[in-house]
Design a protein that fits this description.
alpha/beta; eight-stranded parallel β-sheet; TIM Barrel; disordered N terminus; single chain; disordered C terminus; five-stranded antiparallel β-sheet; about 400 residues; 15 helices; globular
Length: about 400
């Protein structure tokens, strides 16, 4: 049954989080930042280099985006955090006056493994741009995010690809905890008025995840992320880790599942108590011809669409899904026109934002389980929609 929470606002620096409703373990709420309110469950498009690839900011906002993600590592290398600060900070630099969250560069510790060395002090990278050696310590990751001026900063952590040996998972988790404490100290000295999230690590080991949660909450952060998932484990394993971690985290602070994921991942993780998500799938898949719709994924490059006059979804609020024929979208990809990727990216961003907006409404109405079941059933409702 739905339960309305007392209007108790827990404030940390400039971030406040208010739970407005729950339905089982699914939650609806609001994060208030210096640049606006973010309703949760929320989905963050990935704007790694201060840009959602191939999509105008106005279209990102029109899709329903309230919080955007940018990346510390990439912006540190180009154009440089000090330059962005001199130009007025990230909000002014990219002309996005709404809330921004910056990842710390922890994912690049995994994704750029061939170009980096991890020590107690931090991570030394050989830049993928020009080969220059750069160091990212917890203190420098925090400083870069302060210079960028993001509303929500993330601690520096080490993310381990799964499957991995238990000893390696524990080593990275313990190192991430020590880095978390250093990020917190650096943040408190230099960043009044902003928020810092800790990141739960521990791979697929429930005991290590529990240790990570306990230690992070003892340090004390403005919100908590669950990291190190969707990196090689099955969905069942991921959802089990999510459920256990979310249940152990403070109920009055936001919970952010990093780098996840598919529409199915998001719906099921909302049901396990997650408030915030980010993922590259809507735009990356859009650029490669895959549209997410309420009927399931559509591979518009498939030859079956070459003569199809129907839109992707005649009832969508997204003009790109509603007004362009499948035949035309197919033609754009066959012709190598960049517009095809832009249009499908907009379609996908709108779908993801509608997905979490629908979850918010269902939680408030006390019918989230029905919403989840109806949504997932809809992905398989039409025989003429092929799987991805």
């Amino acid at each position: 049954m739905r339960s309305l929470h007392r209007q108790v606002r827990t404030t940390f620096m400039s971030l406040s989080f208010r739970l407005t409703a729950s339905d089982g373990t699914a939650r609806a709420g609001e994060m208030t930042t210096a640049h606006g309110v973010v309703r949760t469950p929320a989905f963050l498009p990935v704007g790694t280099q201060a840009s959602v690839k191939g999509v105008h900011h106005d279209d990102v906002r029109a899709a329903g985006t309230e919080l955007l993600l940018a990346n510390t590592y990439h912006l540190m290398l180009r154009p440089g955090a000090e330059r962005v600060a001199a130009l007025g900070g990230l909000h002014a630099f990219m002309r996005w006056p709404h809330p921004i969250l910056t990842d710390s560069g922890g994912f690049q510790v995994m994704s750029l493994a061939a170009l980096r060395k991890v020590t107690e002090q931090g991570v030394t990278f050989r830049s993928h741009l020009d080969g220059a050696v750069v160091e990212l310590t917890p203190e420098r990751a925090t400083e870069v995010q302060i210079l960028l001026g993001s509303d929500i900063a993330m601690q520096l952590d080490e993310c381990v690809r799964l499957p991995a040996e238990g000893g390696e998972i524990e080593r990275a988790m313990q190192l991430s905890l020590r880095w978390a404490a250093r990020c917190k100290r650096a943040f408190e000295r230099a960043a009044p008025g902003r928020a810092l999230f800790g990141i739960v690590q521990g791979g697929d080991d429930a005991g290590l995840r529990e240790q990570s949660v306990r230690a992070l909450t003892a340090i004390g952060f403005d919100g908590y992320a669950i990291g190190g998932l969707a990196v090689g484990e099955t969905q069942d394993v991921m959802l089990d880790v999510v459920a256990r971690s979310a249940a152990a985290l403070p109920a009055d602070q936001p919970r952010y599942l990093m780098g996840v994921g598919t529409p199915s991942d998001i719906v099921q993780a909302v049901g396990r108590g997650i408030d915030v998500f980010d993922c590259v799938l809507p735009t990356r898949n859009g650029r490669h011809g895959l549209a997410f719709t309420r009927f399931g994924p559509i591979n518009i490059k498939n030859a079956r669409h070459a003569d199809d006059p129907r839109p992707l979804d005649a009832e969508s609020r997204c003009a790109a899904a509603r007004e362009f024929s499948r035949a035309y979208l197919h033609h754009l990809f066959r012709s190598g026109e960049a517009l095809g990727g832009t249009l499908l990216s907009i379609v996908n961003l709108t779908y993801y934002q509608d997905l979490v907006a629908g979850a918010r409404a269902a939680i408030t109405a006390g019918r989230f389980a029905d919403y989840a079941a109806e949504t997932m059933k809809g992905w398989h409702a039409k025989a003429d929609i092929e799987d991805a």
